[in-house]
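The records we work with from here on pair a chain with its fold. Here is one such record, which you should read through line by line:
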Amino acid sequence: MVLVATNKHFSHNDGPHPMDTRKKRALLVEKLSRLHSSVSSFSTSDDGYDQCLKRLLIFAENSEPESVKVLYKILCALPNVGRETKRETYFSFIEHFRSDLINLGFSAEELEEDLNPNEQEVADLFVDENIGKNLRIVEYLNSTFFTESQKSSLRKSRILIDFIKRCKTSYDPDTDRLNEDDLGISQEQFEDSLKSLEESKRILIYRAARGIDDDYMDRSLLSFLKSSIINTNIDEAEVDSKLLSDEEKVIEKLVIGDNLFKPVQAKESFSRQSRETQTSFEGIFWAFALLAFAVVLMFLINNTK
């Protein structure tokens, strides 16, 4: 693909902005979502690589610089990689895209600038629309790029729950490794995911897993998770005692308290209590109904005398 330098510059004036209305932001998020979704195909073949890069560059050539900046930051923060693709390969592709953006006239410094309020709103809206559909983007756990909120903590807990669940699905206690499984995670994918996470988020995986009931979290799997995290150059004492951030503590509690990890007996007990409560309320209802019927009947009898 032939690149034509266009000397793109990010505007800082008060003129019309590509994201200054809710409708514009929503339309932009639709485009960004399609591009982000398609990026995983870059590693399927040489043609897939070229076509994926071409789509990104066509968008860059025909969009406002601010929109391209948001796209670039989203691609960096939330890698959409296929099952067989390592993140190192993905970021080599993104670096290729970045080089082509520079050749098109985009400024490297401005691509790295913090988002302004409208751009931030687009990024957050992108997350609202997409993260729930792809829980395998573990890098969202790292994100300070997106606005923190109760909703973001809940999303991060869902990603962590999915990650632990996939580890459990693939874990083989005989080999103390993770086996390839369509619903699980391979050893290579697991190690690649750990490398992509900040130190505190790797520790968070273990802390959350440690709090899950033994009925779900086999102790050998817990030991595997801990040793794997320590092997990423984290001190064992830190894994057990590092102080988590307030957000990380919230995520930990959300994971541990999820229904998926509750003991079967507790679930049955809760269900039984619910039925008993329901039965109790039904009894009270019918008692009042019979009492009301008796009162009406007595009233009618007295009136007929």
